[in-house]
Structures are given as structure tokens and as C-alpha cells.
Amino acid sequence: MTLVSHLIMMEKTTNSLKRVFTKQNLFKLTLLIALLIISYLVFSRPNYSQSIAHIDKVGHFGSFFVLSFLSYFAFKPKWYIVATALGCYAIAIELIQAKLPYRSASTADFIADMAGVASFYLLLWLANKWRKPTTTSVSK
């Protein structure tokens, strides 16, 4: 193999890897990992003491804020699609937890989940509203 053909092959491989490892694909992978971790945590037997009342609501809020963030950057969907999908996921969590002997379903958990989703989109809206345009116009 000549040096030129080797370099051409390396460039093609690099271009292929760039197409696979895009920011959007990395967000998709991170979203999948986050869903797996969150699902494990909400369905496993809790082995921690809850020394602060309702601290689990903070976990629900934060988890769904992060899931909204990752969903947005992974797919760029309309806000209502993410809200509906994550709302269905939140309801499924509560329905499954109602069947587990060591867990319980809670409307407050669902509210905290949806508050996390709403907070992400509120912050995104505010960021977009106050973001300064980055145009570089030259005055004549």
C-alpha cells in the first residue's frame, strides 16, 4: 500500500467517524444512558434514608429537566412532543411503582417530573429571547 493510498483511506475513515460521532448522536447516546440509569433508580429498591422531607421530588425534577435537555439536543423536537413523551414516561413510572411492594405511586412525583420539563423549556425560551444576535454587519 502506498503512502498516498494509505492517507486517502485514513481520510475516508476519519470522515466516516465524523458522521457517526456528531454532537446530535452523542446527545442521543447520552439520552439512552440517562433513561437506563433513571429507570434503574426509580424501579430498584431504595437503600438510602430520606433525611430531608420530599428530597425525592428534587430528584424527579432534576431527572426530567436533564431528560428534556438531552431530548432537545438529540432530536430538536417541538416542546409538546417532548412534554408528551416524558409525561407518558412519568405516568408509566408511577403505574409500575404502584405495583412494586417496595415503592409507591405519587401524583406529586408526576408534578415534579412535569415541572422539570416545563422549567427546561422556560429557561430555553428565556435564553433564546435574550440572546443577542451574532450577526456581523459592516456599516458603509
Features:
140 residues, mainly alpha, 5 helices
Order of helices and strands: HHHHH
Using the CA coordinates, give the radius of gyration. Answer: 21 Å
Helix/strand class = mainly alpha
Principal-axis shape equals extended
InterPro entries: VanZ-like
Keywords: Membrane, Transmembrane, Transmembrane helix
Organism: Shewanella gelidii
Protein name: Teicoplanin resistance protein VanZ
How would you portray this structure in words?
By secondary structure, the protein is mostly helical. The chain has a domain at about 60-125. The chain contains 5 helices and no strands. It has helices at about 5-20, 25-45, 55-75, 80-100, 105-130. α2 packs antiparallel against α3, α3 packs across α4 and α4 (about 80-100) packs antiparallel against α5 (about 105-130). It is extended and about 65 Å long. The relative contact order is 0.11. The mean pLDDT is about 85.
List the helices and strands and how they pair.
Layout: H1 3-20, H2 23-43, H3 55-75, H4 79-99, H5 107-130
Helix pairs in contact: 2-3, 3-4, 3-5, 4-5
Provide a concise account of the structure shown.
The chain has 140 residues and is mainly α. It contains five helices and no strands.
